[in-house]
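HUMAN: Quick job: go over this next protein and say how the chain folds.
***
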Amino acid sequence: MLNTFRCPLLLVAVFFLTGKAWALSPDRIVVVANQADEHSMTIARHYMEKRAIPEKNLILLETTTGEDITWEEFLETMFNPLREKLHADGWIEGSLGDSYDFEGRRKLVTLGGRLDFLVLCRMPLRIKNDQPRVDRAPAKPPQKQFLVNQGSTDGELALLAAPNTPTVSFVPNPLFGQLRPPSMILQQVIKVARLDGPSVAATMALVDHAIEAEEKGLRGRAYIDLGGPHKKGNDWMQEAGELLEGQDFPVTWNRVPAAIDFTERFDAPAFYFGWWKVNVTGPPRERDFRFPPGALGWHLHSYSANSLRRNNYRWSGPLVQRGITATVGNVYEPYLELTHHPHAFVKALLAGMSAGEAAYYSLPALSWMAVFIGDPLYQPFTVSEEAQLEMMKKSAKPDDLAQYTVLREIERLKESLGLTPAIAYGEKEFNKAPGLALGYELALLNQQQGHVDEAVKSLAFASRLPPIFGANEQGLAYLSANLLWDLMAREDAFELMQSLMRSAIPDAARRAYLPTAISWARTLRKTGELAEWSAQQAEFEAQDRAREEEKKAKEQQKK
């Protein structure tokens, strides 16, 4: 469980500035692959080809193909070989000795490093705790919760250029909150990114989606899922959402402890920050759910990256499998203040940092639990909102995500000119390329102005859409049907509900929609649908009773 704590090392103020801080180059990206794992090699080759990274920048190691590694294995097959190779190739400058320190690391007198990022391709993820090493450590922190040496391999490798660092507890990140770090500080840290996920295809897509978003622009909405157990984390997410609203991204706020479910929209999440569920839930759990290219964000949980190679286990791996482009997570309990700070991450992106740079700007601790997953070169704001609008004008047939560029412009017009011009612009673009998200927004805006007929007109088309709503649009379709019902366009609302219920929706969604669907069928005297949906409801209730009886029987057996 995440807990807050006070640590003077972490009370660093974060200020939002403008201007580019670090200048990354593919020539200074070093890629690390496991030659014992063909998938690791495939991912590395794909990344280097897509980003034009020189062949000489590839380092091949041979280590375990699993996600867990012991300290002995880590030092023998990862840390020492990397320190030796990086020194030999000039990436780490200084003097490498023949002896080893108390932990078994090759001794190094360093002048710093000159690489931008070390990118691990499907390498071991977690270092297991080694209690004998903890017991013999020369210095121990006073807080009991930090008497561990378990952590992410990424967090430990960040100290390749820093000699004699402790392995028990954490090491403060000198790049935290540093928008323009001095060269001397910048060279103290070997920044590490990871390309990893449940499948090779999804892992390679981390790179492909980054490049696509850099070419077409980041398009979509923001979702801030508040209601976590600590006020500080909620405040971080609140600030992150407000920053995105300031950039005209439409933001959906969920302020209750429950995670986003199927009765809420979760279409085109270009940004997602949420907590506090153990395993992925709601729409992102569904196999056909997809984040838009370039999407960023994470679910804050102590063990969100406990494994990256399972489809529905924890959060970081499933988010990668569903197409997120950059995310972070924790392999073991990090404690709240030592996780990535979402508001700082967004600040850094808006200041011009890449996703990888922003990850280090927003991370307080190294040699600890965090990992950054994605292409560190990824620049989400390469294409401005204005440039996206120009690209739309030149396109003969805008794609499905174009409506989210329109929605962002509507947000800007609402703020600067008011509702009437915003609606006029939206309706003009809607006539060119209608979409459910745009139609729903126009219906809401017309409703605010009391234009009921126009509101219905904006959304009635949805009732005639084919029944193929995927996980991305199911919540939006449900909300659209409810809005039509409220606008007294009840036949249109019912037809849209019919389409939704005929789609291949998961049981969790069907359970959520059935009470409303049955109520409407009864009101409109739709006897066929009433009988069908009532039977489905009865079947779910029978399943619930059977599970409850089975649970009681097991409890009786224990007694």
Q: What stands out?
A: Residues 26 and 51 are 6 Å apart (CA to CA). The chain is about 40% helix and 15% strand. The longest strand covers residues 92-100.
